[in-house]
Automatic annotation (TrEMBL), chain A:
The gene is EIPR1. Residues 46-305 form the EIPR1-like beta-propeller domain. SUPFAM superfamilies: Putative isomerase YbhE. It is found in: Golgi apparatus, trans-Golgi network. SMART domains: WD40. WD repeats lie at residues 230-266. GO terms for cellular component: EARP complex; GARP complex; trans-Golgi network. It comes from Callithrix jacchus. Interacts with two multisubunit tethering complexes: EARP composed of VPS50, VPS51, VPS52 and VPS53 subunits and GARP complex composed of VPS51, VPS52, VPS53 and VPS54 subunits. Interacts with SNAP29. The lineage of its organism: Eukaryota, Metazoa, Chordata, Craniata, Vertebrata. Acts as a component of endosomal retrieval machinery that is involved in protein transport from early endosomes to either recycling endosomes or the trans-Golgi network. Mediates the recruitment of Golgi-associated retrograde protein (GARP) complex to the trans-Golgi network and controls early endosome-to-Golgi transport of internalized protein. Promotes the recycling of internalized transferrin receptor (TFRC) to the plasma membrane through interaction with endosome-associated recycling protein (EARP) complex. This is EARP and GARP complex-interacting protein 1.
Length: 393, 742
């Protein structure tokens, strides 16, 4: 590519397509996951989104490049309902001012289908994203992040701009964004949101945000604050994530090198604290199906996979699918002999040479995750086999 | 007789036996002759088989064999041998027969005399035996006469003997009777004289007889008399027993006598215990009086002495006497005694504890220890006597509790002293800060604190040490925890976040080096060291955070796109350097320099030039050769490949360089991460360049490995360049000029 990569954000595209899910499970084709990574070509204002297909069968990685001409991307998130739609926060430089804006985009059709013809020289076939709508933020300042409503039909978006939290309704097939409601944070000093997540519980009415050292929960119906964890971390909170299977539980990480797990009903004390990283923790992610698995990425260039059995929704590493009840009896006896796993760090991945800024789980295969570091290296890893079987059996 | 002997020995060693044969042949021939004799007399073949292997004895052709058959032999010879051999054997045989004949003749001649003398001897023996028989007959008749006489004498004496025996019996009976008749008067006398033991013995002896013959009126009278006297005796004994003025041994004697008199043991036992209780309670009361509401006059040692000799001694005696007297009572009696002891013991312990509690306030440890020792030792005797009462356990418990309280007291004192020290130093630190000038030297303060704490700890250790002195009987029990407890005040420092400010609070583990006898010194040292390390690491973190906060704010709040061309180093960088220098001075007061990498010992000039040139080549290649952007990327990657990963928040060593390295690492890493989040204009980049160069100029001297600073600062500039749409770096010479001016 001959250019400096400066990827800062990545996300797994949602695997909305049922047919493909089926294919993946029966092992016919692929564990197709698309990863968008943003690329900053040095000196140029052209920005790119890389879509990475990882073929689990053949252990092959295919890459497609989309041009994102509006500016360099700082945050990206994919629509849960429509695979082809994603939202970005990007920098726009004008009159030697940098303003971070947000917009919703649609990918070109052929990429969306996830076809697997061998990629040509990607730079030559780089395609452009199709703009659906801008999230107009002229009145609110810099956009820090955009999050989609996790279970919805891809019509609602929350964006965080400086000290405002904005709820948008996308109308007319996403071609128009209407500000539905908003709230803002008042207080001394420069309050700015750094990160936010939409809770998948409570009928998607809760959003949690991080600003400086504080975590706040918001009710999207009234746009009012429902809880507030002051001094959640000693320093800036970098990221947070909701436990997908257990209400009220959320994880946060920050510049004090810690990962903390909270029960939002009792905000005075963290439920659990991990202190394994030796520098700022930039990212924390729960596994989508086995929420004892927690992934963290840090600027000490390490990615850590932790097993938080004691506070997960399946405390003894036990998952029973509905369709193998017959096997269940056999497993039971084995489980009794097994010691319950302790909370611990399962693996530390040190493949990155520089700070790791993004980690995420695959949305198709719960045992797959990717991490992205400053030097542009994307590493895809699997959960260790032994642990996988331990959890499954 | 002599002739017979010669005749007996002649066949074996006769001189003419084989005069002509050589010596070696003699035994052979003799044996042969024997064998033949035996055969002749029909001795068993088994005996003959003992011979050395010869020709088969059953062979009929054997000339010397027993079963020789001349016909067969002849037949065999005729059949087997040629004529010449036959002739030979014939002549041979004739010769042998002749030789045998002549042998036989000589034998008969030689032994003739011997046969004669043997016959003579036998005849003489016959005569002698006949004489002996006569004498034996005479002896037998004499014996018979003697027996007869003896029988007659016995018969005559029989009658007398019987009479003597009867008389002896009567005599004994009369003596007994006399004793009985005298008994009342004797008893009275004994009672009068106070010889109760004697009286009881008499009574015991006579009792059974009187019992038996009480149907006879005379005996009856005696018995009645005796009973009266005995009753009086018992009464007197009881009287004496009750009076109780006499000591325990006399009481014990009384009880013993009473028991012998058949008084009910149960009741006596109760009474005995009641008396003992009275006495012991007296002791307790006197002890309590000593304890009194007034300030305790006698010291604790005296108190325990009193208690030991008075109460415990008494208890011992009582227990011993009881066990001796009422051993027959079985487990019930033992149980009673145990209950008794328990009750009194617990009261005693309560008193002792009260006394010891008064001692808690402070004062001399040695006295207390000696008192405890004595107390413990005293109680061992009754403890051994009465395992059931659990006295020893209780005593040990008390000792332990007291010791523990004592330790707690010392610990409390230590803590208070420690906190006091800390407060003093805090004030000392705070005061000059307000005044805005340098306070008294930190090192001095530290030395003060350390020495005062050290002396405190030493004093308490010395005090507590007594508890574990070798000769103290309980020394091996409860004191293992002491050493650890001493460390606690230090641990607490960590928990108090107020001490972030002062690096003075990290002291080397020297205070604990003076050994506690029980806990191994190494453990203490290790623990202290660990504490100190945690404290120091915390300090580094906090200081690093202060600086990084400054840097973060400075990067985040500035508009880097529209800055002007840099003329100066930004003030915040100067501030950073100033702060670092201050920390350096602060830490330098407390810690040694530490080890640097060898290369850094040169002047800053040289290092600087190396740094800038490397930067020119590595980092700014794109600006000079814009056609090869790939190279920069590659270069930086390769460089990263070879540089070691930097652990930002790593534990630190106990030296200045390490502490500062930690702080600088944290700060620079923060700067790096912040820069990566911003977008820079051309001048913004140049400003970063200037700032970094400035930091480089001043920070290298603080760290252990200046490469580290290079690396991080390079990384910062490179990241800024990446984040710049228009990266035109400043000329290094200009950067230098600006920095030197700043």
């Amino acid at each position: 590519m001959g250019s400096c990569l400066c990827p800062l954000r990545a996300c797994w595209l949602e695997e909305g397509n049922l047919e493909e899910m089926h294919a993946a499970r029966s092992g016919v084709s692929l564990e197709s996951c698309a990863l968008c990574l943003h690329k900053n070509e040095n000196c140029l204002m052209g920005r790119k989104i890389h879509i990475i297909d990882f073929d689990d069968e053949n252990n092959m990685i295919n890459k497609k490049v989309l041009l994102h001409q509006a500016g360099e991307i700082w945050h990206i998130s994919a629509s849960p309902a429509d695979r082809g739609v994603l939202a970005t926060c990007y920098n726009r430089t004008s009159d030697s001012k940098v303003l971070t804006c947000a917009a919703v985009w649609r990918m070109p059709k052929e990429l969306e289908s996830g076809s697997h013809e061998s990629p040509d020289d990607s730079s030559s076939t780089a395609q452009t994203l199709e703009l659906l709508c801008h999230l107009d933020n002229t009145a609110h300042g810099n956009m820090a992040c955009v999050v989609w409503e996790p279970m919805g039909d891809g019509k609602r978006i929350i964006s965080l701009a400086d000290n405002h939290i904005l709820l948008w309704d996308l109308q007319e097939s996403s071609s128009q964004a209407v500000l539905a409601s908003s709230a803002s944070l008042e207080g001394k000093g420069q309050l700015r949101f750094t990160s936010g997540r939409w809770s998948p519980h409570h009928n998607c009415t809760q959003v949690a945000t991080a600003s400086d050292t504080t975590l706040r929960g918001w009710d999207t119906r009234s746009m009012s604050q429902i809880y507030c964890i002051e001094n959640a971390h000693g320093q800036l909170v970098r990221d947070l994530d909701f436990n997908p299977n257990k209400q009220y539980y959320l994880a946060s990480c920050g510049d004090d090198c810690k990962v903390k797990f909270w029960d939002t009903r009792n905000v005075t004390e963290p439920v659990k604290t991990l202190e394994e990283h030796s520098h700022w923790v930039w990212n924390v992610r729960y596994n989508h199906s086995h929420d004892q698995l927690v992934l963290t990425g840090s600027s000490d260039s390490r990615v850590m996979l932790s097993n938080m059995v004691s506070i997960s929704s399946e405390p003894f590493g036990h998952l029973v699918d509905d369709d193998d009840i017959s096997d269940q009896e056999d497993h039971r006896s084995e489980e009794k002999s097994k010691e319950p796993l302790q909370d611990n760090v399962i693996a530390t991945y040190e493949e990155h040479e520089d700070s790791v800024y993004a980690v995420d789980w695959s949305s198709a295969d719960p045992w797959l995750f990717a991490s992205l570091s400053y030097d542009g290296r994307l590493v895809i890893n699997r959960v260790p086999r032994a642990l996988k079987y331990h959890i499954l059996l | 007789m002599a002739a017979a002997a010669t005749a007996g020995s002649s066949p074996g060693s006769g001189p003419g036996d084989s005069p002509e044969g050589p010596e070696a042949e003699a035994p052979e021939r003799r044996r042969k002759a024997h064998g033949m004799l035996k055969l002749y007399y029909g001795l068993s073949e088994g005996e003959a088989a003992g011979r050395p292997a010869g020709p088969d004895p059953l062979d009929p052709t054997d000339l010397n064999g027993a079963h020789f058959d001349p016909e067969v032999y002849l037949d065999k010879l005729r059949r087997e041998c040629p004529l010449a051999q036959l002739m030979d054997s014939e002549t041979d045989m004739v010769r042998q027969i002749r030789a045998l004949d002549s042998d036989m003749q000589t034998l008969v001649y030689e032994n003739y005399n011997k046969f004669i003398s043997a016959t003579d001897t036998i005849r003489k023996m016959k005569n002698d035996f006949r004489k002996m028989e006569d004498e034996m007959d005479r002896l037998a008749t004499n014996m018979a006469v003697i027996t007869d006489f003896s029988a007659r004498i016995s018969a005559t004496l029989q009658d007398r003997h019987e009479r003597i025996t009867k008389l002896a019996g009567v005599h004994a009976l009369l003596r007994k009777l006399q004793f009985l008749f005298e008994l009342p008067s004797r008893l009275t006398k004994c009672v009068e004289l106070g010889a109760y033991g004697q009286a009881v013995r008499y009574q015991g002896r006579a009792q059974a007889v009187l019992q038996q013959y009480q149907h006879l009126p005379s005996f009856r009278a005696i018995q009645d008399d005796c009973q009266v006297i005995t009753a009086r005796l018992a009464q007197q004994l009881r009287q004496r027993f009750r009076e109780g003025g006499s000591g325990a041994p006399e009481q014990a004697e009384c009880v013993e006598l009473l028991l012998a008199l058949g008084e009910p043991a149960e009741e006596l036992c109760e009474e005995f215990l009641a008396h003992a209780r009275g006495r012991l309670e007296e002791e307790l009361r006197s002890l309590e009086a000593e304890l009194g509401p007034s300030p305790p006059a006698p010291d604790v040692l005296e108190f325990t002495d009193h208690g030991g000799s008075g109460f415990v001694g008494g208890l011992c005696q009582v227990a011993a006497a009881y066990q001796e007297l009422f051993a027959a009572q079985g487990p019930a009696g033992a149980e009673k005694l145990a209950a008794f002891t328990r009750e009194l013991g617990s009261r005693y312990f309560a008193l002792v504890e009260r006394r010891l509690a008064q001692e808690q306030g402070g004062g001399d440890n040695s006295l207390l220890v000696r008192a405890l020792d004595r107390f413990h030792r005293r109680l061992r005797a009754p403890g051994a006597l009465l395992a059931a009462a659990g006295l020893t356990d209780a005593a040990t418990e008390i000792v332990e509790r007291v010791a523990r309280e004592r330790l707690g007291h010392h610990l409390q004192g230590l803590r208070a002293a420690f906190l006091g020290c800390l407060t003093d130093v805090r004030q000392a630190l705070a005061a000059p800060r307000v005044a805005g000038k340098e306070g008294p030297g930190l090192a001095e303060l530290l030395a003060n604190v350390a020495s005062s704490i050290l002396s405190h700890i030493k004093a308490s250790l010395a005090a507590v040490h007594l508890f574990t002195a070798k000769e103290v009987s309980f020394s091996n029990k409860p004191y293992f925890r002491m050493g650890l407890e001493h460390l606690e005040p230090q641990q607490r420092v960590i928990n108090s976040p107020t001490w972030k400010r002062g690096p003075a609070w990290i002291w080397a583990p020297s205070p604990c080096r003076d050994q506690s006898p029980v806990t191994p010194v190494s453990t203490l040292c290790a623990e202290a060291r660990e504490t100190a390390r945690r404290l120091l690491t915390h300090y580094v973190k906090v200081q690093g955070l202060v600086i990084s906060q400054m840097l973060r704010k400075s990067v985040e709040t500035r508009d880097w796109l529209s800055t002007l061309e840099p003329r100066n180093v930004r003030a915040v960088m100067k501030r950073v350097v100033e702060d670092t220098t201050a920390i350096d001075v602060q830490v330098g007061l407390l810690y040694e320099e530490g080890v640097r990498k060898a290369q850094s010992s040169d002047s800053s000039k040289r290092t600087f030039s190396v740094y800038s040139s490397s930067r020119q080549q590595g980092r700014y290649a794109p600006s000079y050769t814009p056609s090869a952007p790939m190279d920069t990327n590659l270069l930086s990657n390769i460089q990263k490949l070879f540089s070691e990963r930097i652990d930002v928040f790593s534990p630190v060593e106990f030296n200045k360089v390490s502490v500062l390295t930690g702080i600088i690492k944290i700060s620079l890493k923060t700067l790096l991460e912040c820069v990566r989040l911003r977008t820079f204009g051309r001048f913004g980049l140049q400003q970063v360049q200037v700032d970094c160069h400035f930091l480089q100029l001043y920070l290298w001297r603080f760290v252990a490995d200046e490469e580290l600073v290079h690396l991080l600062l390079d990384e910062v500039v490179a990241s800024a360049a990446l984040r710049c749409p228009d990266p035109v770096p400043m000329e290094p010479s200009v950067v230098e000029v600006i920095c030197e001016r700043g």
